[in-house]
Every structure is written in structure tokens, then in C-alpha cells.
């Protein structure tokens, strides 16, 4: 596999995405951002995400990012001819990624066995709610369900007794995104094995569950339960295992996060507060005592932070080299000099909006590459191009498919 680094480290890898909503399309976007040729298959009505979020003239701003760097084609997979086209395209791809319910692609005539007849080493990545096996296999699930069953929704809530409101959501579809990242890791590992020194051209199947992806992030939750029968509880803005580390109020109604949970940092913070006598005092000796005494300690810190405006407090903490930040909004992110310096805030021309759309940059940075090649394209924008290029179809054949509702 020859890589042209100017085109991205995954240049030369071709991915067929049969995904919808968030998880598989997110994974495919990461691969596309890194240079893979991603061909996204959509039904004639399009991926529902094209209608999500804020819109201008019926066009989703989110789609500009969600579909970027991909070539989009339309296929009605309920027709046999469309299924045949997917088989032919898959034969020229390295990876296929999908996030239908388990067994659904088999019903569409696109089982791994049939897809690999013409491409035996095709890497196939499945993303689903509960995985391709097990008693919950056929249950419906979205990211929010994965977050609940994975234990995250319980832990993102307020402290017990602090609120009667429903458990708090993370704010984005993090369960979908995390499962998408795990799918990318699995795909890259399979590509490494396939292209590696041992020449193993075996087919590899990646099975990612939303629930398991979230559960894998839960740090000490399971070992603490297994050994101590302790059920980890939500801590609101704090951290159950480290203190002080929370958001503290300011004089102008803001909040500043302060993370001073190491011994040198705690000593620096107490020095700023004029409370040096608390360093090493009972209830403050070491992280464990501070965790046990967190309510009283946080109250002391909050009394101090309320004496300063947000900017003044941040300046004071930064000069003392204590980790801190205000709680960023979209406006803060878009104007942050660090993000701007590293190309994480990009203005991408999008013809759908007759001008630029603000995009998040590409993560991870590899050899300094961090460019968006094109925004999420219109529905079916590349159907003719892809069928010409990969399947050698002429215009008349493509027009006939369109007339018959296949594309």
C-alpha cells in the first residue's frame, strides 16, 4: 500500500460506508479525514442526519462536517440491482463499515460471506447497539441507550440528592462517537495485520457494540464493585478520586474549573488563597483525605473564587501554573487562540451555503496535516463519478438505473 502523505496517511485505502445516523458515518469521517477514499452509500431519501441540527434553507449545517471528505452515492438497497452494485463496489474496497441492526445487511443480500466472494480479504466493521451476538442482539438501540447501559448516564448526573431532574446527558452523542472511534481502531489494526510483514491476507471482522464501547470507559467502576460491592456514584462537577477538582463560582456569575489535586498544586492553590496552614493539616493531608473532606474544602475554595471576576481568577491561576479554565461555549472555542493556531477551527467553503462554514479540524494531527478537502456533499453528488470510475458504467446505463429507481 503506497502512501502519498500529501494526500493523507490513508491515501490508497478505499472504504465503503453503508451507515446512517452517527456511529458508522462518524467512523468513516475519521478515516476520510486521514485520507481514505470513503464512498458513502445512502438511500434515495438520504441519511437522516442531513436533516438534523440547525438548518439554513432546509440544509443541515452539521452535515457539512458529518459528511465531509466523502464521496456520496445513492442506491436503493431494496433492489437486487443495487445490491449487485454494492457487491461490485466492495470488490474494489479495502473496508466496509455498517451500522444496521445485526442481520439486516444479510437480509439485503450483503452478508459478509457473499461480499467476500470477490474480495476475500475485505475488512468488515459492524457497529450495533449490543453487538452481533448475545441475548440483546436484536434490541433497538441508539447512542443514548448505549450510554445508559454502559453506566455513563448514571455517572454524568448530579450528586445523589442534589436534584430530582432526570439523569443528565453528556450533551453530544458520545456513545455513537466512542463506538465509531473503536471501529476505526479495529479497522486500522486489521489493515496493519493485512499489510504487515507476515502477509496475512485473512478476512477480519470487527464487531463493535455501543454498550460495550461506553462500558470500557468506566475506569474503576467494575473492579470496585467486584472487590468491594461498591456502586460508583455520580459526583456532579467533581471527581470521585481526586480533589480539589471542580468548577467554582466567580464574582461575575461565571464558573472556573480548577484542578489542583496533586500535592504541589494544592500547596500552590492554598498559597494563592492565603491558607498555607491547610497544607498538611488534618482533612487536607494527601489526596485521600481531601476526597473525604471534599464538601468542606470546596466550600472554602468557592468562598475565595467568588472574590474575583472570571478573567481575573483565570489570570491569577494561570500565573501560578495551576490547571484551570472557564467553561467554554461554542463562541469561546471558535475564538480560542490555541485552537486557531493548530487549525482546529477551520473556515471551509461550502457551496450549499454559498460561503464558508466553520468546521472542527482533523484529529489526530499526523505530519502536520489538518486540512478539510471538501464539505459534506449534496445527496448523490458522486453517484455518476463512482459508477463511471469503479464499475466502468456509461452514462446510458446510469441513466437507466436512475429511471428505474435503483440510484
UniProtKB/TrEMBL annotation:
Coiled coil: none
Annotated InterPro entries: CoA-transferase_III_domain, CoA-Trfase_fam_III, CoA-Trfase_III_dom3_sf, CoA-Trfase_III_dom_1_sf
Alphabetized UniProt keyword annotations: Hydrolase, Transferase
One Pfam family matching this protein: CoA_transf_3
Enzymatic class: transferase
Domain of life: Bacteria
Membrane-crossing segments per the record: none
Gene3D superfamilies tied to this protein: Crotonobetainyl-coa:carnitine coa-transferase, domain 1, formyl-coa transferase, domain 3
EC number: 2.8.3.25
UniProt-listed SUPFAM superfamilies: CoA-transferase family III (CaiB/BaiF)
Gene Ontology molecular function terms on file: bile-acid-CoA transferase activity; hydrolase activity
Protein name as catalogued: Bile acid-CoA hydrolase
Source species: Terricaulis silvestris
